[in-house]
Design brief:
This protein is of the alpha/beta class and 240 residues long. The chain contains ten helices and nine strands. Helix 1 runs parallel beside helix 2. Pfam families: ECH_1.
Length: 240
């Protein structure tokens, strides 16, 4: 456990709670590295279910833009590569993955939610992916896989916000779940996660795996390495 990430462990279920409520659980370098380490440890332990949630007002506000002034384009590129590494690690997990979203969620926070196999949301949640406004391609193909490419294009070209009800209708959210229903939801997910033996479960996920790790990373790097990334992000922030 670290200050920015709380990890609860049992033999079969690991729960990862993003713990930066004062920053809306934005994904800074420390939190991303803690998640990478924690998820890797869960895989090594033989866990069957991984649960992701956030404390405070929301699940995650995405890529942390709070220290941009001290970052170079190269610094930002490395941080984004580590985020993409995390997304791939979770998307290709041998475990059943479950995420709970609430409040306002943005960018890489939505991507983190979307890579999980079961995606539950509070009725008041909203989702927005503004990265294309500053030329960043992150999680775009995966979002298209989840909601369909025509719908993904419509939403992303406008970088518009989605309500929880719309997210359910397009398949981004699999179930609406209140805070008091989360324990029962985890119990049911663990039941499903352990119906098959571990080898069969992993084979199932491998056969159905649509990950394109090398292409996704290349697309991200191509977009993020275009000169002026920091300036574009700062310009976007000034417009909000």
């Amino acid at each position: 456990m670290t200050g920015v990430l709380e990890i609860q462990k049992s033999a079969q279920c690991w729960t990862f709670t993003l713990n930066r409520p004062d920053k809306m659980n934005a994904l800074n370098g420390e939190l991303v590295e803690a998640l990478l380490q924690g998820v890797g440890d869960a895989h090594a332990s033989g866990a069957r279910l991984l649960v992701f949630q956030g404390v405070g007002r929301n699940f995650s506000a995405g890529f942390d833009q709070g220290d941009l002034e001290s970052q170079s384009d190269a610094d930002l590129l490395l941080r984004l590569v580590r985020v993409e590494t995390l997304l791939h690690l979770i998307a290709s997990s041998p475990c059943l993955t479950l995420a709970f979203a609430h409040g306002r969620n943005f960018g890489a926070g939505v991507d983190l939610f979307a890579v999980c196999r079961h995606r539950c949301s509070a009725a008041d949640a909203s989702f927005r992916m503004p990265g294309l406004r500053f030329g960043l391609v992150l999680g775009t193909r995966r979002f298209g896989d989840v909601v369909g490419y025509a719908k993904a294009r419509e939403i992303l070209e406008q970088t518009r916000q989605m309500s929880a009800s719309e997210a359910v209708s397009i398949g981004l959210v699999t179930n609406l779940v209140g805070a008091d229903e989360r324990p029962d939801t985890v119990t049911e997910a663990l039941r499903i996660a352990t119906l098959l033996d571990p080898t069969t479960q992993q084979q199932l996920y491998r056969v159905l795996d649509r990950e394109q790790a090398d292409k996704d990373l290349a697309d991200l790097v191509r977009s993020a390495s275009r000169p002026g990334l920091k300036a574009r992000i700062l310009a976007y922030m000034s417009e909000r």
